[in-house]
Amino acid sequence: VQLQASGGGSAQAGDSLRLSCEVTGLRIGNYGMGWFRRAPGKERELVASIGRGGSPLYRDFAKGRFTISRDSAKSTVYLQMNSLKIEDTAVYYCKWVRNGDVYWGQGTLVTVSS
Questions:
Q1: What does the pLDDT look like over 42-73, one tens digit per residue?
Q2: Which residues, in sequence order, are CB contacts of 91 under 8 Å at separation 6+?
């Protein structure tokens, strides 16, 4: 099983980026998936997650700006990030939990400048 994250890059404050995380090797089905991030000098933190029923959960800093979605047919989870802020600069990781097994993507760097 591999998780391939992509979509990161450089952006200016106020811009949008969409991150993708494709799972290969197994179908994601309706298993829970999430996006985390690690900013420079900080610990990794949850950004958003989507549960088996499809209900999303967002950290306060992501509410109203970020949207997590899942395309089970493509085994891909997305994170649409709008109104980016400088403090969103971080390496973003996707996480997939399947029957107690935890899988992480390699991370994709998002750099937001003024």
A1: 999 999 999 888 889 999 999 999 999 999 89
A2: 8, 37, 38, 107, 108, 109, 110
